[in-house]
Amino acid sequence: MSAISMSLVSLTFHQIVRSLGPVVTLGLEWLLGVPLPSSGTMASLAMVVVGVGCTSIGDIEFSSWGALLTVVSVLLACVKGLATNRFLVGPNRLGESDLLQRMSALAVLQCVCVAWWVGELDGVAQWTASAVKSAEPIRLQIGSMNVSTVPLPLPVPFLHLLSNSILALLVNLSSFGASRHLGPVGSSVAANVKQVATVVVGVVVFHYSINSWIIVGVALTICGGWMYAQNRTAEKKKKE
């Protein structure tokens, strides 16, 4: 739902709505009987949300259908965080790799169904044939040596897919580990910090333009994340 909604709304709108994840997760926990955290923790969450909003500020464009899908994707992400945490720390807890293995087969079926629904399956065969046809060997030149040809075992687009799959595996494993130790709200806060970190990397590596809103947003998000960690640690020690 998140991927589909991104094609129907602007990136700014998508990131701002996604930044509400910690607040939505907190509300869902409250509905499940978990007491609300302290006012200091609530204030730190507000700082993180506002910080991401400042960092993502820009042209806001969206359609009614795109806005609905974006909100639904946020709700689904928050429910997923709660369910994941229950599987990892509950009485029938699983390991990170075990949980991922059990989820993968169901995720494949869901992705195939959604791909059929949005019409992507029709283009899979054409894309595969085009990727194989356009595959070219890599040419290397070392110093003054002649150019040599190094054949690839797979076409470059498939190598991109393979590397993307490996990164997705590592992201899920680390995300599950964070959920086990931080809880669903903490994981949502970390996801918001990730959005700001992506902007910072873009500025440093790709020399994106920076303005005062980005500086304020990064500062608020980092300070809010640090305050949240400190408040939650103090609350756990007090409870113990």
Automatic annotation (TrEMBL):
TM annotation in the entry? 62-79, 154-173, 185-206, 212-229
- Compartment list: Membrane
GO CC, one annotated term = membrane
Could you tell me the keywords of this UniProt record?
Membrane, Transmembrane, Transmembrane helix
| Record carries keyword Transmembrane | yes
Membrane topology, as annotated, equals: Multi-pass membrane protein
Q: Which InterPro entries match?
A: Sugar_P_trans_dom, TPT_transporter
Matching Pfam families: TPT
Please list the residue ranges annotated as the Sugar phosphate transporter domain.
2-228
Has the keyword Mitochondrion been applied to this entry?
no
Q: Would you tell me the protein name for this molecule?
A: Sugar phosphate transporter domain-containing protein
Q: Which organism is it from?
A: Gonapodya prolifera (strain JEL478) (Monoblepharis prolifera)
